[in-house]
Amino acid sequence: MNIDFARLQMVNQQVRGWNVYDEDVLAMLRQLPRERFVPEGYESLAFADMELPIGHGERMMTPTIEGRLLQALGLEGDEKVLEIGTGSGFMTACLASLAAKVTSIDIHADFLSTAEARLAAHDLDNIELVQMDAMRELPEGGFDAIAVTGSIQSFDPRFVEALNPCGRLFVVVGDAPAMEARLVERTDGKDWHSVSLFETTLAPLVHGALPPQFSF
Fold this sequence. Notes:
Layout: H1 3-15, H2 23-31, E1 52-55, E2 58-60, H3 63-73, E3 80-84, H4 90-98, E4 101-106, H5 109-120, E5 127-131, E6 143-148, H6 158-161, E7 163-175, E8 178-186, E9 192-200
């Protein structure tokens, strides 16, 4: 397989074809070797628009969802970003390529250690990896953007409270088979504005099925 051609086709035919037009996002996806972040034995499927199992019953997002997430956050290069769910480390690498600093948290220690090795191989030194259950605690400090890479059953306002004013949050909320991807922007104080981006399904965060805390 011609890796470079397959990656180019993934971006041009799948990601761009699903309404991702941000040239910074597309250029980054054309360069970042996604095949080096998929589980061993799945390299030939690295550019297919399908979720890939990564262990612990969790799955890597599809390239189209990854593209829509990155476009929605609208990163310009100077942001402090929180990623909830490190997983394979690929989205971590994407965020680190587009922002100033990324703090990525995951409940699974082996995900973090594997991601650390993959990220180190690409000289990405603006990343902090932390073992943490996001449904119970979050890192301190305000963030300009938050990417939640697993779904949650009901919206958790703590995620918005972790944002700086004008900060943006991408999150998928609901139950399969019809979940909703949403972009939430903090205005000021504890107020925020939420818009629906598209319907999808996404593997849930660990402990993501909690009683409703807030309704949009």
